[in-house]
Amino acid sequence: MAEQQSIVSGVAQRYASALFELALESGTIDAVEADLTRFTALLAESEDLTRLVKSPVFAAEDQARAMSAVLDKAGISGLVGNFVKVAANNRRLFAVPGMIVAFRAMVARHRGEVTAEVTSAEPLSDAQTASLKDALKAQLGKDVTLATSVDPALLGGLVVKVGSRMVDTSLRSKLNSLKIAMKEVG
Questions:
Q1: Which residues, listed in sequence order, are joined to residue 161 by a DSSP beta bridge?
Q2: Distance between CA atoms of 29 and 23, rounded to whole angstroms?
Q3: Please, are residues 132 and 121 in contact by the beta-carbon 8 Å criterion?
Q4: How far apart are CA 113 and CA 182, in angstroms?
Q5: Which range has the worst mean pLDDT, 6-10, 116-120, 135-139?
Q6: Rounded (5°) CA angle 69-19-73
Q7: Given 47, 76, 109, 110, which residue has the most CB atoms within 10 angstroms?
C-alpha cells in the first residue's frame, strides 16, 4: 500500500510539474489555479464524478469522453482541460486530486507562501482566520495560506500543521493529557 502511495505521489508530482511549467511559461498560473479549484469543487459535489475519477473499472476512452463532457459543461478549458484529458487518456485520472495538491504546493513556493493545515472544532470566522494568518506570518516570516477543516471531535482549540511541525492546542488533547496524568498519579 505504501509503495502504491509513493507511485501515486511520483506520478502526481510529475504531472503537476509539467502543468506548473506550462502555466508559468504562458503566465496563466492564477487562471489555472482557479480552474483547478472549480474542478476540485466538482469532485466534492458529485459522488458519481469521484467514482469515475477513482475507479479502474472504466476504460480510458470512457473516462476521457466523460471528463471532456464534464469539463465543457463546467467551462473548464485551456491548460486545465487538456491536463485532465491527458491524465484520463493515460489512465492517470485517479491521481488528479494528488496532482492538484502538488500543483498548489508549487504555486505557493513560487509565491513565497507557506501552507498551514488548520483543523478546528467549528468553522473559523473571518476575523479568526485573519488573526491566525497574521500570527503565523509573524512566526514564520512568510505569507501563509490556510487550508482549513472542521473536526467537532476536537471539542475546542486548534491543530495547526506547517510542514513537519504541528501545534495541537485542542481541548481533546489537553483532556487526554490530563487523563494520562491522572492514571499515573493513582
A1: 117, 166
A2: 5
A3: no
A4: 42
A5: 6-10
A6: 15
A7: 76
Which pLDDT value is given to residue 83?
95
- Contact 104/36 with Cβ under 8 angstroms? yes
Output the nine-digit C-alpha cell for 135.
500570527
Nearest CA among 113, 150, 132 for reference residue 29: 113
**In 3D, which of 28, 70, 65 has the Cα closest to residue 49?**
70
Task: Say if CB 99 and CB 27 are below 8 A apart.
Answer: no
User: How confident is the model over 149-186, as pLDDT tens digits?
Assistant: 888 888 888 999 988 888 888 888 888 888 888 887 76
112 φ/ψ sector (left φ>0, alpha ψ -120 to 50, else beta): left
Express as a percent the part of the chain with pLDDT over 70.
95
Which 8-state DSSP code applies to residue 93? G
Backbone angles phi, psi at 55, to 5 degrees: -85, 130
Predicted TM-score (pTM) of the model is 0.68
Distance (Å) of CA 149 to CA 33, 139, 154, 156: 20, 22, 11, 13
Calculate the CA dihedral of residues 56, 20, 33, 40 and round it to 10 degrees: 10
